[in-house]
Amino acid sequence: MIVTAESCTGGMIAKTITDSPGSSAIFERGFVTYTNQSKTEMLAVPEDILAEHGAVSDPVAKLMAAGALTRSHADIAVSCTGIAGPDGGTETRPVGLVYIGLATKDSPAKSFEHHFKGDRDAVRAQTVEAALSHVKDELT
């Protein structure tokens, strides 16, 4: 079973999974945590980590995945946090920067940094594709 914890994709990973017939056999639940407050309340991402590293960061992606896993009955969790644009980017955190987190019951959470190109829709679509690819790699 899989659980999702999404920020920049707003539920698109969960939608993509559940678009397939029979997905109820593998999809446990999804969290859409677009704000820092929701990341803290729903996934137990500590406020001090958000303040220190920012929402778009490696530690937050890991904590989102770990939090989703502990708040579900899933075996694997995938998370994403990033800057889809068109605004919000900075020199150190440009539009297209996305962190994808993975956590399983058998291993500590990890994350992957991506730098996607294109407009908002393209960044979000690439995030979904990469997230599902990381899940597939983890499971095989």
Please tell me about this protein's structure.
By secondary structure, the protein is an alpha/beta fold. The protein has helices at residues 12-18, 36-43, 47-53, 58-70, 120-139, and strands at 2-6, 27-32, 76-82, 97-104, 107-115. The protein has a five-stranded mixed β-sheet with strand order 2-1-3-4-5, sandwiched between helices.
Characteristics:
alpha/beta; Maf protein; 5-stranded mixed sheet; 25% strand
Integer count of domains: 1
CATH superfamily: CinA-like
Number of strands: 5
Structural class: alpha/beta
Please give the largest β-sheet. 5 strands, mixed
According to CATH, what is the topology? Maf protein
Shape estimate: globular
Report strand order across the widest sheet: 2-1-3-4-5
Succession of helices and strands: EHEHHHEEEH
Low-confidence stretches: none
Cα separation of the termini: 15 Å
Helix content bin: 25-40%
CATH domain class name: Alpha Beta
> Percent of residues in beta strands?
25-35%
Mean pLDDT: 97
CATH architecture: Alpha-Beta Complex
Rg, Cα atoms, Å: 14 Å
What's the tally of helices?
5
What's the quick description here?
The protein has 140 residues and is of the alpha/beta class.
Structural topology:
Layout: E1 2-6, H1 12-18, E2 27-32, H2 36-43, H3 47-53, H4 58-70, E3 76-82, E4 97-104, E5 107-115, H5 120-139
Parallel strand pairs: 1-2, 1-3
Antiparallel strand pairs: 3-4, 4-5
